[in-house]
Amino acid sequence: MTDDELACAAALLDLPGMTPVRLARLLDGFGPRLAWRAVRSGTHPGDRERRFRIGARRVDPGQVLARYRAAGVSVLLPDEVGYPAGLVGDPGAPAVLTAIGDPASTEARPAVAVVGTRSATRYGTSVAAELGRGLAASGVVVVSGLAIGIDAAAHAGALDAGAGAAPPVAVVGTGLDVVYPTANRALWEAVARRGSVLSEAALGTPARPRVFPARNRIIAALADIVVVVECHGRGGSLHTVEAAARRGIPVGAVPGSVRSPASRGTNGLLVDGCMPVRDVDDVLTAVSLTRGGRAIAPAGSRPSGGGGRSDGPVAGLGRVERAVWEVLDDTPTTVETVLLRTGLSLGAVGLAVGGLEERGLVVAGAGWWSRA
Amino acid sequence: MIASIPSAVLHGVDGRLVHVEVHVANGLPGFTIVGLPDTAVRESRDRVRAALASTGLPWPRRRTTVNLAPSGVRKGGAGLDLPIAIGVLVASGVLDPAAVAGLAFVGELGLDGSLRGVPGALVLVEALVGHRVVVADADGPGVSVSTTTCRTAPDLGEVVARCTGRRPWPAVRVAVPTGTPRPRQAHGGDLADVRGQLLARRALEVAAAGGHHLLLVGPPGAGKTLLATRLPGLLPDLDPQTRREATRIHSVAGVGGGDAEPVWRPPYRAPHHGLSAVAMLGGGASLRPGEVGLAHGGVLFLDELGEFPTAVLDALRQPLEEGVVRLSRSGGTTTCPARFLLVAAMNPCPCGEGGPPGACRCAPASRARYARRLSGPLLDRFDICVAVARPGVDDLVGCRPGEATSVVAARVEEARSLARGRGVVANAGLPAATLHRTAPLDEGAADLLVRRVRSGHLSGRGLHRVHRLARTLADLEGGVGPVGAQHVAEALVLRGSRGILLGESLR
């Protein structure tokens, strides 16, 4: 396909008011060049209202493409090299996709989507990071959405797996020049460097609530299996689950405490018959892989909820520190609860937690503590 | 003929001496009041005329001029009715000037000649030193708090009769025998009513003992308001100086009931978050005291702190720092004492369910917006910031009641007396420069603090606040010896939860 076709596709994508649905309608049955001409002349049957005619007349497609390329963004069309194979033939495949990074990373198989809530607990983010790290180290592409919480932790884990690991793939809802959330800028850049960041939005598209559910369908379509680490009773992660279910892609969920609101959604998925995911091996088995000769996740990634809890870290703790350690777990425990369960004074508990925190065993939050 | 009658008007929370000069001379009958009177003073002409007529006293059929000296300051309130009436009587020759020599008058007149009380009578009388002040019967008990040299009367006729010596001045009814200890009436109920809430109870005790400002953060229904109403009961009775100041402020504002008792117990003010900056600080043309003044010596409770206008909250910083509020308005400048214990409650986030991560469904941006409503400097004033969780079912049903107010108040009193030994009302007022002397740290405590500062958990200012807080905690245990590591550790936990508002739990 020529640059001219790409330029016309980019110009269509870049028109003000363009949405993925409208773009798909305009390009359906037309090549980009034909579609562009028809839109420009106001004769496109998919644009009877001539919504885009005025905008199109002001634009030179060549310049639009040059602008995208100058920003380091490549424009991908279906049936074109670089367009993710996982999306080809998908009913909701984006008509035009933009990408930063190495498009080849989206072709790598197998791919696992690790998704979840933005307001994650320490437990959730640590499991997500562990899964990301272990999967990437085992050669599995980790797909996620670069949101804060579970998404960010999964990506960070995948990047942490070191050289030779599978590249991470992110699908975002905003334009590729709009980093959202801004707190994840460094992570975003690292993912773009090592793998790729995809979006079906034009450059400059800001974060809007409706773009994220649409983005989630791409995440689901790209993956061989979707793993939900933590999610609430309703929310974006369940959109991904629905999209996966429609495509017949298996969904796994990480079990959580029945008292944790952040695990309500995932526990619900388990009740509905989704595959339980305890660790990387569960996922690898599901994608018919075993951990072969590849590098396994570095030390320290053992599931912290395992049985080896009483040895190791607690060696050398004082009596009070041990008592406090015993009542803490991976979910946040309020100061109040620790006082009640240990029966110790606030001063003693504070001192013990301070010591545990300095050893890196306990994380102190705002009014709560949990095991690190 | 000319008469000059001393009286007083309110200026902020102070009284200001005013001479009511009345001149009655030949000319067209008329009545003018000059000397910057407000509407209430100007209308007093009609009240005075009616009162004189009802009492059977003559109204001069000549040209009458009333001047309020000093004429450059605005005068407000109806308290000038009585001095104007007396001035008119003296100037028109009905009353002998010698009969009112040494007397000053403050009171509002009814059309039937009856004498009514005025707000701030106590303050007005105090401004009239050297005079025997005649006030309404209703103001007698309130005024007697400060002086017993005043005179009272039920109506204008009695005032005239008693001035001329036809009838004697009765003894002033005294409101409260001075020096009588008042029963400790808990403001909003007893602390024993609070089930569970170990951390919050502890925070209340420490706040009361050390005068540390307190922020309670928790979801709706956690009992934040319930806890805050228990705080005044933990505080000791007001010391004489504060009692005097608080009584004056309450008298001026006209709050605190009609029996005009002195303010013995720490006041409790809980303004709604819709209030304006003027209502909070005081002001208006007459420079009325605001909520911070009314809370002087007691507790100012701001429920739903996040809903208060930012301007109102930031205006609190100056009184919190200096213990007084300075007001400058067109009517002049005034200073009102405002030393109070600030207690605030708020939800951790817009949905209210925040706290430990995972429970809250708010978008990070809306949480950040919510947190931004509070300025950093204001948040920094809260020495104690604790998360209050909803009590569990076991707490509400099974749990045995906690300590009663009287038990905790005894410990608070003990700690406060230790603070007085250091020359401050409470430990929160300890100067940073002398902390090493007033609150020496033992080795473990110093080590813990240094490690906290090094690891970036604590700023320099936070260091001093934790240090004072630790002093209070040690005082609650008797206060002998240096401050220990467990005190510092507890202080760190109590100071701790402000991060809940800054979205820290999401990181």
Textual characterization of the structure:
The complex is a heterodimer of chains A (372) and B (507). Chain A has 372 residues and is α/β, with parallel strands linked by helices. Chain A folds into three domains: 1-70, no CATH class; 103-290, Rossmann fold (3-Layer(aba) Sandwich), CATH 3.40.50; 312-371, Arc Repressor Mutant, subunit A (Orthogonal Bundle), CATH 1.10.10.10. Chain A is built from 15 helices and twelve strands. Chain B has two domains: 2-163, Ribosomal Protein S5, domain 2 (2-Layer Sandwich); 191-421, P-loop containing nucleotide triphosphate hydrolases (Rossmann fold, 3-Layer(aba) Sandwich), CATH 3.40.50.300. In chain B, helix 7 runs parallel beside helix 18, helix 20 runs parallel beside helix 22 and helix 21 (460-476) crosses helix 22 (485-495). Chain B is elongated, with a radius of gyration of 28 Å. Chains A and B meet through strand 10, helix 14 and helix 15 of A and helix 7, helix 20 and helix 22 of B.
Quaternary state reads: heterodimer
> What number is the mean pLDDT of chain A?
83
Shape of chain A: elongated
Radius of gyration of chain A from CA coordinates: 24 Å
- The CATH superfamily of the largest domain in chain B appears as P-loop containing nucleotide triphosphate hydrolases
Stated plainly, the CATH topology of the largest domain in chain B is called: Rossmann fold
Total helix count of chain A?
15
Low-confidence stretches of chain B: 503-507
Strand content of chain A: 5-15%
Average pLDDT across residues of chain B? Answer: 85
Distance between the termini of chain A: 52 Å
